[in-house]
Amino acid sequence: MFKIAVAGTGYVGLVAGVCFAEVGHAVTCVDIDENKIKLMESGVSPIYEQDLEGLMQKNYAEGRLNYTTDYAKAYREADAIFIGVGTPEQPDGSANLSYIATVARQIAENVEKDCLVVVKSTVPVGTNDKVEQFIKDFLINDVKVEVASNPEFLAQGTAVHDTLHAARIIIGTESKWAEEVLMKIYEPFNLPIVSVNRRSAEMIKYASNDFLALKISYMNDIANLCELVGADIQDVAKGMSFDTRIGAKFLNAGIGYGGSCFPKDTKALEYLARQNGYELKTIQAAIDVNKYQKTKLFKKASDRLITFNGLKVAVLGLTFKPGTDDLREAPSLENVPLLLERGANIFAFDPVGVENFKKVYPEGKSGQGSITYVEKVEEALEGAHLCLIFTEWGEVKAITPEVYKKLMRVPLVYDGRNIYDVKDMENAGVEYYSIGRKSSEVSGNLAEVAATRV
Ligand code: UDX
């Protein structure tokens, strides 16, 4: 059993802390936000993440998990301190390391015994060398402090599962001592451990994330070509997936990748390359394709309509993917302002993302249009002239083609996640556009349909 302090209680820090407690370590989660600490002590998770709250309550009740704002005490007593604070992207694509620096300094000024500092946050290659030097520069007591890299590969929505059942644990260390401490901390997880040097560990994180981002952008690029030449991206992906060298995962074309990692990490690696006088052409291409893809539905709808002004537009899904309330880099954030500028009256549905979205777009008039939040998909669709699907939530997938036809004033659907079968939509009489597939061929006149419903 190790005494572990975790700095930062976001997706990375909190999930790591809870999972360390779950496997038997004594964990103290540190955050500067007093209210957040109180909330967690009362058993409430500040983030929406499957299984997290249950494990928080269990490990807190059993005394293995604590929360505090008193970082000095937490760092003083720890055998290992994991840093899981944010490294937000700056306008030039570089990572903002100020939160890491703050924690590093607090550690240096408070540790009283030998201690391993483990950086979980995604940081540019070489940062951990600097963090170690920084801590040594500010160290007050005569103790050994080393820094190790231990990048995180969890996906939001399945964070707890991804941590407890990770495909691999990457540890990057510069000494036998640091390697052994980390090996022992991870021993109870019983997972494959890849032990490399610090810089390689840092690079594994970027190379893995950016490869997946590249894979998605590649499929989106091919999808766009499929539309032009009459191929079907889903059939193409299926055909590709049987080749084990390609694999079956992350082949879904759509409206681009979002979230807290892929957009940031692609830009950060591209920036790192540029700083080193190298042009990372593949990653730049992934970034470019993703930017184009995000507004693909809006562009398609603009081609089809004379105006958005005064139209009731159903927006289904606001978060960057299902299973999370996170809006970071979500396609909805790119499309909603375009629609509002053009006078659309948006009726938005999302099972968990509405509260966060309201902070950016409060309910009511906005731009030339307006935005209303609804609790049921059907309320968004009722009388709508147009529907845009941004997130493949179960609630959205459960809506059958007939419901679109029945409820919408004009059954015109733009699906950024390829949820429906084109033929099913066609048979139900829905004019349906998706990504990398042909559009439905609806016979009859949609205007006539609309006219009957005025
Ligand atoms: C990702 C990585 O999966 C994880 O390993 C890393 O630690 C952090 O970044 P996350 O951002 O939570 O996790 O979500 P993920 O499920 O990977 O999806 C990222 C984005 O890619 C989403 O916007 C999703 O919609 C999109 N995506 C994913 C596709 O467009 N197509 C796919 O086939 C898969």
Which segments are poorly predicted (pLDDT under 50) over 5 or more consecutive residues? 447-454
- The rounded distance between the terminal residues' Cα atoms is 69 Å
Query: Can you identify the CATH superfamily of the largest domain?
Result: NAD(P)-binding Rossmann-like Domain
Strand order in space, largest sheet: 11-12-10-9-13-14-15
The largest sheet, given as strand count, sense and whether it forms a barrel, is:
7 strands, mixed
Number of helices in the DSSP assignment: 20
Computed Rg: 24 Å
Helix content: 40-55%
Strand composition percent: 5-15%
CATH class category label of the largest domain? Alpha Beta
Structural class based on helices, strands and sheet pairing: alpha/beta
The best one-word shape is elongated
| CATH topology type of the largest domain | Rossmann fold
- Distinct small-molecule ligands in the complex: uridine-5'-diphosphate-xylopyranose
